[in-house]
Amino acid sequence: MTPAEGTSAAASDPPGGPAPAAPRFPPGAQVRVRDDWPERRGPCHIRTPHYLRGRVGTVERALGRFPNPEDLAFARPAPERTLYHVLFPQPPLFEEGRRGDDVLVEIFEHWLEPADPAATEKAA
Amino acid sequence: MSAPARPESIAALDRLLEALRTRGVVTDEELAARQASTDSASPETGARMVARAWLDPEYRALLLRDGKAAAEAMGVSMAGAPPLGVLEDTPARHHLVVCTLCSCYPRAVLGYPPHWYKSFAYRARAVREPRAVLAEWGTALPDSVDVRVVDSTADYRWMVLPLRPAGTEGWSEDQLTSIVSRDALVGAALPQAPQGAVGG
Amino acid sequence: MSEPDRTPATHDMGGAQRFRCTPVERDEEPPDEFGRRVDALRQLLAQKKLMTVDELRRGIESIPEDEYLALTYYERWLRSITTLMLEKGVVSPEELR
């Protein structure tokens, strides 16, 4: 394994250590997909489509916890991460489309951050 | 596009299988059994689940809550299969399933994905211009219906529970199953009652 | 920090401009014998804990773009499975010549 393979998934981890077991985001939470491009830093395997990076969506619900595919892809020990169904309005994604249409995508928790950190801190 | 495999690819597969057999990793019997069980999965399973959900409110609730349990209730072995999520169409919302990253598909209840589902064009376009793709295939959605594209990116597999078409009142489970096409189970088509059909 | 390079990977096809004007062909042929054998082999190797579907995908995604676009679906699978079996030492390069 090259050093890049060994660090690519770690580089996409959020700061602050392993993900907590309880879902961080409740249904209805506004979340932003991290604008991160690990595929440009070296070999990696990620399940977050490029067209959602940096985009804001709404958590539909937590789907459960699953071993992190970014680790499974390299046969590394794969800690479980919470997987969410997140809803995005469709038109802004490609600057076309019909208002009211949307896109629903499974995204792992470590790819999500609060869309409005100030509001989240106030609520906490 | 289902271009045939190149002769050199077939030869490469034969060499890999020969090496795996020699090493005792796989046997021909295991491969044949695995292939037969994969071949036996059919979209009729998904269609029957939809038909039953149209007829039985309790089954419908189970299907929407836990697709895997609903498949097992039909006698399908879901051991080792990914969780199955079911997306309920409404008069105001149509779902279309795609996997933009590869080809995730609810194979346990639909069988092999068709070529178009795995095609670059479908993977690229479904999420960007779903209405255009559907219209090219003869499904023009009224403007009153919102389209929800479901990009199947991770550990779930997704199937659509379409709307039961008008004109199917009084139909049996078999009759209803017959109008739910494979394509309708991922939202690429709508179930249609045959013209002039009379309930049975 | 400078702006990241936002070029999507080849396999990450959602919205890809290059296929905007490509009709989606309604090909109804089931997978051929080659494809079905590759498919069964993939499942069997996963069942025997010799590879995961995630590793299969990683292997497919690492195929250079011109080949990724030229190979058929199950040819990409076979390429990835073969690379993984070599990487893991399950088979040797000599055996595949």
Topology of helices and strands:
The complex is a heterotrimer of chains A (124), B (200) and C (97).
Chain A: H1 3-11, E1 30-33, E2 56-67, H2 69-72, E3 80-89, H3 91-94, E4 102-108, E5 112-114, H4 117-123
Antiparallel strand pairs in A: 1-2, 1-5, 2-3, 3-4
Chain B: H1 7-22, H2 28-40, H3 43-55, H4 57-65, H5 67-73, E1 84-88, E2 93-98, H6 107-110, H7 115-118, H8 120-125, H9 130-136, E3 146-151, E4 157-161, H10 173-178
Parallel strand pairs in B: 1-4, 2-3
Chain C: H1 33-47, H2 53-61, H3 65-70, H4 73-87
Helix pairs in contact in C: 1-4, 2-4
Question: What's this, in brief?
Answer:
The complex is a heterotrimer of chains A (124), B (200) and C (97). By secondary structure, chain A is of the alpha+beta class.
Describe this structure in words.
- Chain B: It is an enzyme of class 4 (lyase).
- Chain B: GO terms for molecular function: nitrile hydratase activity; transition metal ion binding.
- Chain B: Keywords: Lyase, Metal-binding.
- Chain B: This is Nitrile hydratase, alpha chain.
- The complex is a heterotrimer of chains A (124), B (200) and C (97).
- Chain A has 124 residues and is an alpha+beta fold.
- Chain A has a single domain (3-13, 31-123), classed as SH3 type barrels (Roll), CATH 2.30.30.50.
- Chain A has helices at residues 3-11, 69-72, 91-94, 117-123; strands spanning 30-33, 56-67, 80-89, 102-108, 112-114.
- Chain A is globular and about 40 Å long.
- In chain B, the strands form two sheets. A two-stranded parallel sheet of chain B has the order 1-4. In chain B, strands 2-3 form a two-stranded parallel ribbon.
- Chain B has helices at 7-22, 28-40, 43-55, 57-65, 67-73, 107-110, 115-118, 120-125, 130-136, 173-178, and strands at 84-88, 93-98, 146-151, 157-161.
- In chain B, helix 3 packs across helix 4 and helix 4 packs across helix 5 (67-73).
- Chain C is an all-alpha fold and 97 residues long.
- In chain C, helix 1 packs parallel to helix 4 (73-87) and helix 2 crosses helix 4.
- Chain C has a domain at 32-90.
- Chain C is globular and about 40 Å long.
- Strand 4 of chain A pairs parallel with strand 3 of chain B.
